[in-house]
Design brief:
The protein is globular and about 35 Å long. The strands form 2 sheets. A 3-stranded antiparallel β-sheet has the order 1-2-3, with no helix packed on it. A two-stranded antiparallel sheet has the order 4-5. With 81 residues, it is mainly β. The protein has 1 helix and 5 strands, in the order βββαββ. A hairpin with a 2-residue loop joins β4 and β5.
Length: 81
């Protein structure tokens, strides 16, 4: 089995970033830098304007605990199975 290494970099505030591709609802791939955040699993924090630009659908809200306390997050539906 082959395992490719991904490359990341540290920004000027020492956040670890990786380039990932986001896919719009019409299939366009957009390369963006994503910060590695080991506090969550299976979630991607994204700004509302980016959610709209990608054509992803708002789904619900959920309260999650972060390092700064409980925060209410909007949940977007990315993949419709």
């Amino acid at each position: 089995m082959r395992h490719d290494m991904i490359e990341g970099f540290f920004d000027d505030q020492d956040a670890l970033l990786f380039e990932i591709n986001l896919i719009t609802s019409d299939g366009l791939e957009l390369a963006v830098d994503a910060m590695l955040d080991t506090g969550f699993s299976y979630w991607l924090a994204i700004n509302d304007q980016d959610l709209d630009a990608l054509g992803w659908t708002y789904f619900d809200q959920q309260t999650m605990r972060t390092a700064r306390g409980d925060v209410r997050f909007d949940i977007g539906l990315v993949f419709d199975f």
